[in-house]
Amino acid sequence: MLKCNINGVDLEVPEGTKLIEAFLKAEQKIAHYCWHPGLSVAGVCRLCMCEIEGNPRLQIACNTEVQEGMVASNQSEKVKETVRWGMDFHLINHPLDCPICDQAGECGLQEQYMEYGQYTPSMAHAKVKKRKVVSLGSKVVLDSERCILCSRCVRFTDEVTKTHELGIFNRGDKSEIGTFHDKPLENKYAVNTVDICPVGALTSKEFRFKQRVWYLKDEKTVCPGCSTGCSVKVYHNQEGLFRVKPEYDAEVNEHWMCDEGRGVFDWVNRQNRQSYSVNAENMEKPSSSELKLILTAQQTVEEYESLFEYLKSSNKKVEVYYWKNNPDKFDDFDNLLIRGDKNPNTKGLLETAVKHDITLNPFSGFDGFESFEGDIWFILPENKAVYPLYEQYVEKALKLENNLTIFAVPKVKVDKTKKNISILPLKTYFEKDGHFLNFNGLKRQLKPGPLQVSSALALNEWVSFVKSDDFGDQVDLLSKRKSEGFRKKNEMTQTGGGL
Amino acid sequence: MSVEVKRKDQNQSWLLPSVLSGMSLTFGKMWGNLFNRKKMPTLNYPEEKYEYGPRFKGNHVLTVKKDGSLRCTACMLCATNCPADCITIIASEHDNEEVEKFPIHYEIDILRCVFCGFCEEACPVDAIRMGPEWQSPALNGGSFVYDIRHLAFRSELRGGIESRLDDAERHKAGI
User: Fold this and answer.
1) What is the pLDDT of residues A355-389, one digit of tens each?
2) How far apart are CA A208 and CA B99, in angstroms?
3) How many domains does chain A have?
4) Does B163 touch chain A (CB under 8 A)?
5) ipTM score over 0.90, yes or no
6) A/B interface, count of CB pairs below 8 Å
7) Is residue A184 part of a domain?
8) How close B166 comes to chain A (CA, Å)?
9) Residue A77 DSSP label
10) Rounded to the nearest 5°, which phi and psi values hold at B114?
11) Residue numbers in A near B124 (CB within 8 A)
12) A497 touching B, CB under 8 A?
């Protein structure tokens, strides 16, 4: 460990720490663009200037390693003046199209200009015009005018994905970010470049112009897209969910996430959900003593626990079927984040089943079900897109004559005159409490966000309803429940409303 | 509880002088208005309408560019700044890459609006103004929600109000 002093704060840092990391560790403000904790050091923006005792010239903090007894500061007028001018140089060719730019509101340039800007620009010449709205493949749009050439995205494709698509072309003030001959940027992690872009040069096609970022609130949760279980932030407001961004997690995903995982919020939105229960009174009747249960590995450990406990405590003859989507691809891995097992909780399901001594029979269609007379519980997967046989199985299930209960997140179209089928809406990963176990058994805790469908319950809550005597009353109460926790549109911007 | 009744004093019981003075004022004004109508302070609404100055903050106008398209870039600062939350905008990608973003839906619920003028102040591109019009009668609730057609191209605006900002000129000047 090395001792150093940052702006008068004494601290100890491990060997090899960069000075900028020491600054951030000491909770001191320091301007920076090009430095990113997940990437190598480029030292091109020249904004993280600091004064080191014994050194006559200012140094950049991102490319200077901390030495024993180093005393550094960025409080002097000399440093502030340098940063102000550095900022002014960045803005020489930056267009003033913040109203159009999607990054406005979370833009590094806006934030740092407020803090370190020179409010009277000294540039007398016209701005250099560059290309706008260049489509880089199906996910990313480039605006090279807004780019400040921090090279974060270039380093990302070089170091993290190792696909080397992006580069800086031309020289001087004609320099531009781009791909060779505008070839599409089609790697599986391309949208991470949008996240790390400190300005609005790279924007995501999916999110573009959907919402202004200040209307969105974020909720930290876990991505249910595959068994990796990346930490993510889900951005939402009263109109629904809009985007997913990665959250730093040293154990799993560090700073990144895959593009596939950014699309897994669609099924949470109200318009795609089963929003009411059908024939819920069926659950009250004394049903037969035999039960077949079909489940997937998309529920939380808590839900499996209470479900299996219920099955064990009831005096029913129970058979549990485990529906795997693509068992042959379960062990695929692309050496970064994406895994072939598209269920977040396979490990959790298997462990809980062993714990409660439940045998999981493989599910492969309703072939053996014709002669079966008892009840069937069918727990549909949340993310139906990764289940290729989803439509087919649901269709077959709806034709069954048994007393069938479907627990569903996606909409299920059912003939309401068929009294043997009841459908109960489930909560999604975004709304329920609980945890997943990822591929190596790490606990991934979910955090309940605002309810999107008021009548939805998690599986363990449904089970506790079934256990209790007054199921019907409980469901009635549920239908009167209001969706709560939605944010008013201008809640953030109009605090207090004082003039 | 007893109520004390005030007796009229002697002067008040002489009604005729005050009636006559009142009548003389009324008829004086009447003859004055009949023979000198220019000085009459009231208007024959709705045939005659009072016109406020251009700085009056009345009904909203969306300005247009030289080519007649909307000036608004759908940045939503007006909607953000609106204390009555009466502006709804849906943005979309424009085919022309120099325009890039434009509103496909812009609505003002004029019954919610408090005419504070914050939208006008927030607008970075002179796209929304509050004009001198002050009447907004309508037959049903739906017609109080003004859409783009009403805000930018209603017949009173005679083809739209042109914004003083010109993108092409700004582009040439290197802004």
Assistant:
1) 999 999 998 888 878 788 888 999 999 998 899 99
2) 15
3) 3
4) no
5) no
6) 47
7) yes
8) 14
9) H
10) -110, 10
11) 98-99
12) yes
Q: What is the pLDDT of residues A98-149, one digit of tens each?
A: 999 999 888 988 888 988 888 887 888 888 889 999 999 999 999 999 999 9
Interface test with A, best of B73, B92, B101, B125 (most A CBs within 10 A): B101
Q: What's the CA gap between A227 and A248, in Å, rounded?
A: 17
Which of A133, A210, A242, A499 would you mutate first to test chain B, the one with the most B CBs within 10 A? A133
Please state the pTM of the whole predicted model. Answer: 0.86
CA atoms within 13 A on the CB side of A281: 2
B83 touches A at CB < 8 Å: yes
Closest CA to A349 of A325, A370, A371, A315: A325
Shortest distance, CA B77 to any CA of chain A (angstroms): 8
Which range (B14-23, B39-48, B71-80, B90-99) has the least confidence?
Answer: B39-48
The alpha helices in A416-458, defined as continuous H runs, are none
The rounded distance, in Å, linking the Cα atoms of A156 and A139 is 16
Q: Do B81 and A493 touch (CB under 8 A)?
A: yes
Model pLDDT for residues A297-339, shown as the tens digit of each residue: 999 999 999 999 998 888 888 999 999 988 888 888 988 999 9
Residue B64 structural domain: 60-173
CB contact under 8 A, A98 and B75: yes
Q: Indicate the SS3 state at residue A333.
A: strand
- Say whether both A278 and A394 belong to one domain: yes
Who among A98, A126, A133 is closest to B100 (CB)? A133
Q: Are residues B76 and A127, on separate chains, in Cβ contact within 8 Å? A: no
Report which of A419, A383, A425 is spatially closest to residue A402, judged by C-alpha positions: A419
Average pLDDT estimate for A261-275:
88
Domains of chain B: total: 1
| A482 pLDDT tier (thresholds 50, 70, 90) | low
A104 touching B (Cβ < 8 Å): yes
Q: Which residues of A touch B91 (CB under 8 A)?
A: 209
Establish if A235 belongs to a structural domain. Answer: no
Residues A188 and A289 in one domain: no
Task: Answer whether A76 touches B (CB < 8 Å).
Answer: no
Report yes or no: A1 and A67 within 8 Å, Cβ to Cβ. Answer: no
Helix/strand/coil for A126 = coil
Taking a C-beta distance cutoff of 8 angstroms, is the pair A293, A379 a contact?
A: yes
Cβ contact (<8 Å) for A209 and B74?
A: yes
Residue among B92, B171, B173 whose CB faces A209 most closely: B92
- d(C-alpha A128, C-alpha A170), whole Å: 13
Tokens 């009466």 sit on residue: B86
Q: Are residues A385 and A471 in the same domain?
A: yes
Q: What is the CA radius of gyration of chain A?
A: 27
Q: Among partner residues A129, A208, A490, which is closest to B85 by beta-carbon distance?
A: A490
B98 and chain A in contact, CB less than 8 A: yes
Question: Is B55 a domain residue?
Answer: no
Q: Tokens 């106008």 — which residue? A: B61
Please give the span between the terminal C-alpha atoms of chain A, in angstroms, as a whole number. 52
Q: By the 8 A CB rule, do B91 and B104 touch?
A: yes
Q: Is residue A139 part of a domain?
A: yes
Question: What CATH number is given to the structural domain containing A155?
Answer: 3.30.70.20
Residue A13: its H or E element: strand A9-13
A132 to chain B, any CB pair closer than 8 A? The answer is yes
Task: Tell whether B80 is within 8 A of chain A (Cβ).
Answer: yes
Partner-chain residue, chosen from B83, B93, B97, that has the shortest CB–CB distance to A208: B93
Query: B163: domain CATH number?
Result: 3.30.70.3270
